[in-house]
UniProtKB/TrEMBL annotation:
The keyword Metal-binding applies. The keyword Transport does not apply. The gene is blh_4. InterPro entries: Metallo-B-lactamas, Mito_Persulfide_Diox, POD-like_MBL-fold, RibonucZ/Hydroxyglut_hydro. Keywords: Hydrolase, Metal-binding. It comes from Ruegeria atlantica. Its EC number is 3.-.-.-. Residues 22-212 form the Metallo-beta-lactamase domain. One of its GO terms (biological process) is glutathione metabolic process. This is Beta-lactamase hydrolase-like protein. One of its GO terms (molecular function) is metal ion binding. It comes from the Bacteria.
Length: 293
């Protein structure tokens, strides 16, 4: 696959860190118009009380309204397991199309079974407005964006590249954070290594924007690096680490990791493009499958 890289286009990127989930949401603006996209929004949840609120999403909405921007896309880099998407809430207020990788269907099939969803839960990705294939392009104003299919962390992961800016989802972390786990259903460490190499084949000066950062070793939270920096310094794949080394390390590490705190509500909501499921009477309701994850 040859991707239409154009390093002369430099979108304006605004980042919004969510402390509760260590997620970074982005507003990506075409520099030649008022058009923008959101990448990986967050809906707030107090899981103990089952309470959903929208402070983080409201901040994104406030920024878009106050800067007089036109929201064209609400992008999910993948089905997140650690935070809930606010895509439908934002879409209702500002419009825009919700997009994700077409392999969402695999994720829906897997977790449709885990959560014992009935036939009313469609496993065809139809909850989303747009399903992307590898190398698809779309426009934010006058700026072309292309997608790179990057499975491994999950089967539906995609990196979105707008000019010199790439939104890597959980394909990579900051150089001192390494990479994301590859042990969720449908994840695979060797596949993740190949996907990371794909991202690292972009020009060295490409700006990379992370979906998560945990400030390893007490450093301040950070979310932006470059391909060149990751190639040289990434602790899991930098300095020419081999696929074998990576796979061995990743599998050993993943075996020790606990499930993310919000995986149960996150998957149920995110596989529905951010809609909270409802019970037979139409009340918003989440399930907890016992001993299934
Ligand atoms: Fe993730």
């Amino acid at each position: 696959m040859t991707y239409p890289v154009n390093m002369n286009i430099k979108p304006d990127v605004q980042a919004f860190f969510d402390e509760a989930t260590n997620t970074i949401s982005y507003i990506v603006k075409d520099s030649t118009s008022n058009s923008c996209a959101i990448v990986d929004s967050v809906m707030d949840i107090g899981y103990a009380a089952g309470r959903i609120t929208y402070d983080h999403a409201d901040e994104l909405i406030h920024q878009i309204v106050s800067q007089d921007l036109n929201l064209e896309w609400i992008i999910e880099t993948h089905v997140h397991a650690d935070h809930l998407s606010a895509a439908p809430y934002i879409q209702e207020k500002l419009g825009g199309k919700i997009g994700i990788g077409s392999k969402i269907m695999i994720v829906q099939d897997t977790f449709g079974k885990v959560f014992n969803e009935g036939t009313e839960f469609q496993r065809d990705g139809s909850q989303f407005d747009q399903l992307f294939e590898d190398g698809d392009t779309y426009m934010i104003g006058n700026m072309q964006v292309f997608t790179m299919y990057t499975p491994g962390h999950t089967p539906a992961c995609m990196v979105h590249v707008a000019g010199d800016a790439a939104f890597v989802g959980d394909t990579l972390f900051m150089p001192d954070g390494g990479s994301a786990r590859a042990d969720f259903p449908g994840g695979d460490a060797a596949t993740l290594y190949d996907s990371i190499q794909k991202v690292l084949s972009l020009p060295d000066e490409t700006r990379l924007f992370m979906c998560h950062d945990y400030g390893p070793n007490g450093r301040d939270i950070a979310w932006e690096t470059t391909v060149g920096d990751e190639k040289a310094h990434n602790i899991h794949v930098g300095g020419g680490k081999s696929k074998e080394e990576f796979v061995e390390f990743r599998m050993e590490r993943d075996a020790q990791l606990a499930m993310p705190k919000l995986i149960i509500p996150s998957l149920q909501v995110n596989m529905r493009a951010g809609e909270v499921p409802t019970d037979v009477d139409g009340n918003p309701m989440l399930k907890v499958p016992v001993n299934k994850l």
